[in-house]
Amino acid sequence: MDENTLWLIVGGVIGAILGAVIGGVFTFYSTDVNNMKLIQTQNKNEIKALANEYLNDLVFIENAEKDFEHFIQDPNSDFNNPQSPRYHKTIAWQDPIYPTWGMYHSNRQEIGKFDPNIAKKMITFYGLVLNAEAQRQQYNDYDKLYPRDINDEYLEENRKSNLIRIFNNMAGNINQSRPMISEIRRELEIVANS
Q: Where are the domains of the chain?
């Protein structure tokens, strides 16, 4: 074997090795890029689905808050008005403002996947809604725990003032959260439709 043939063989082997290495790097890089694109697409689809689920959650809350608002604006519901059929009666609001099966209870950690501005608004909103729900439950529990005693004026006045305080706190949280719904809905719709 002459020297030129040897160099051709060595050059061919080196070329084959370099070709395999370059081909492997290119395959690895293109696979990595494709995987990254797939991961980005999956994350985007997951966030879109999450936005749609929270939009459905907002519908429930909005309906519950509207029902509550209609109830307290009904003149027949005024337990402080002597003309009302509910005068000196307590308001037993049994329907939850926010149910235990709501999205926030099961997926609150997922809110961090949204843009920080949306996430901050949602956390504030759900805090108000959960406070209203806790106060609704507190109101109903207090009403059951301290039954009316029309023979004890002091007890009745104390009971009534505590119920009114709890009720007003609940209504205040609802009033603060209601205007936030449209803004959060608008931002979630942008995410869901992107």
A: 3-192
